[in-house]
Amino acid sequence: MKKILIVAGARPNFIKISPIIRELKKDKYNFDCKLVHTGQHYDYEMSKIFFEELEIPQPDYFLNVGSDTHAKQTAKIMIEIENVINDYGPDYVLVVGDVNSTLAVSITSKKMFYRVIHVEAGLRSFDMKMPEEINRIITDRVSDLLFVSEKSGIKNLINEGIDEEKIYFVGNVMIDTLLYQLKKLKNDKINIKNHGVLTLHRPSNVDNRDKLQEIFNVLNSISDKMEIYFPVHPRTKKRIKEFGINISNNIKLMEPLGYNDFLRLWKDSKFVITDSGGIQEETTVLGVPCFTLRDSTERPVTIEFGTNTLISNNYEKLNNLIDDVLNNRYKKGKVPEYWDGNASKRIIEVLRNENM
Question: Is 118 designated active site?
Answer without folding.
Answer: no
